[in-house]
């Protein structure tokens, strides 16, 4: 919805969110997924994209950023059902619908289950069970690996994924133990060392790591308030550095979660919105071992509307 057409008697935040949700309803498939694309580079506007294999991450992002707050909507129920249908018997899930492409992984599972739980679609005991399974899925150094064992896929580790995994573990209520503390230590080292500035295996932008840390600090302050000052410094240094829609959105959301304003990035993000209320396509994931960036306008819209409506 164009800002020029907003009813002045309505709350512009509610109007913006409603317009984006209407867009989700137009783009969602009958099954509950969204079109996603693979780009050769992040600069999506100048590249020719291929359709990505059918995946579930886009639906999880729409639910986890915006729709979990609206469990009464039919689209929320549709996405929740779609995601639940792709959970394995052990409640793990893969990035792609086709398990022959990639096996279930800890990162996607953590985000999907967290979103479903916040939407009221699954019970806490499911989180507890998978959190325990995840913490036991480690390499010889005790670090949680990406792919659940057994798998014929060489497994890797990713600090951004660890932040997602820690969110699930804390949401599940699993008591702190040596394994959890080790993951927290690794995430903290990644922050303090500045290595996050180089991106990670699957997440190429520093903003992604800082965004997921901000969620942890906001939702579990007793555990992670100790990281707040360092995260605030890190995000503040990056204000205005990049103008990709998801980068802008994540910096805005992160600072709002930490009780700070970011008017510079907010103004830049608002100016990217087109006359139909949409934001430019952008990417969030990349292949680990080859070129290819996953993104879409749906994913971009989800993070952008979260940023402009978060309280």
Overview of this protein structure:
By secondary structure, this protein is mainly α. The protein has one domain. It is 50% helix and 5% strand. The protein has 13 helices and 4 strands. The protein has a 4-stranded antiparallel sheet. A hairpin with a 6-residue loop joins strand 3 and strand 4. The longest helix is centred in the N-terminal third of the chain and has 16 residues.
DSSP helix fraction? 40-55%
**Which runs of at least 5 residues are low in confidence (pLDDT < 50)?**
1-9
Provide the domain count. 1
Helix/strand structural class: mainly alpha
Q: Terminal Cα separation, in Å?
A: 21 Å
Radius of gyration: 18 Å
What average pLDDT do the residues reach? 93
Give the helices and strands as they follow along the chain: HEEHHHHHHHHHHHEEH
Summarize the biggest pleated sheet.
4 strands, antiparallel
Query: What spatial order of strands do you see in the largest sheet?
Result: 2-1-4-3
Categorize the overall geometry: globular
Number of strands: 4
Bin the strand percentage. under 5%
């Amino acid at each position: 919805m164009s800002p020029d057409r907003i009813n002045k008697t309505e709350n512009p935040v509610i109007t913006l969110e409603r317009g984006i949700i209407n867009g989700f309803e137009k783009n969602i498939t009958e099954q509950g997924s969204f079109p996603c694309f693979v780009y050769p580079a992040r600069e999506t506007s100048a590249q020719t994209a291929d359709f990505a294999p059918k995946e579930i991450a886009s639906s999880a992002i729409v639910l986890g950023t915006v729709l979990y707050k609206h469990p009464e909507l039919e689209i929320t129920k549709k996405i929740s059902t779609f995601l639940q249908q792709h959970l394995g018997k052990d409640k793990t899930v893969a990035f792609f619908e086709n398990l022959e492409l990639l096996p279930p992984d800890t990162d996607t599972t953590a985000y999907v289950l967290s979103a479903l739980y916040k939407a009221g679609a699954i019970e806490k005991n499911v989180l507890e069970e998978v959190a325990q399974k995840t913490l036991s899925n480690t390499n010889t150094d005790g670090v949680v690996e990406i792919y659940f064992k057994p798998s014929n896929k060489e497994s890797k580790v990713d600090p951004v994924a660890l932040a997602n995994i820690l969110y699930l573990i804390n949401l599940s209520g699993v008591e702190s133990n040596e394994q959890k503390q080790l993951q927290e230590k690794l995430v903290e080292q990644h922050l303090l060392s500045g290595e996050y500035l180089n991106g990670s295996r699957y997440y190429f932008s520093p903003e992604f790591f800082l965004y997921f840390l901000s969620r942890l600090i906001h939702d579990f302050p007793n555990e992670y308030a100790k990281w707040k000052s360092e995260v605030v410094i890190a995000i503040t240094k990056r204000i205005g550095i990049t103008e990709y829609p998801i980068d802008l959105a994540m910096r805005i959301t992160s600072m709002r979660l930490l009780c700070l304003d970011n008017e510079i990035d907010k103004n830049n993000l608002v100016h990217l919105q087109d006359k139909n209320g949409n934001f430019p396509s952008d990417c969030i994931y990349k292949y680990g071992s080859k070129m290819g960036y996953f993104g879409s306008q749906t994913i971009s819209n989800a993070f952008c509307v979260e940023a402009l409506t978060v309280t």
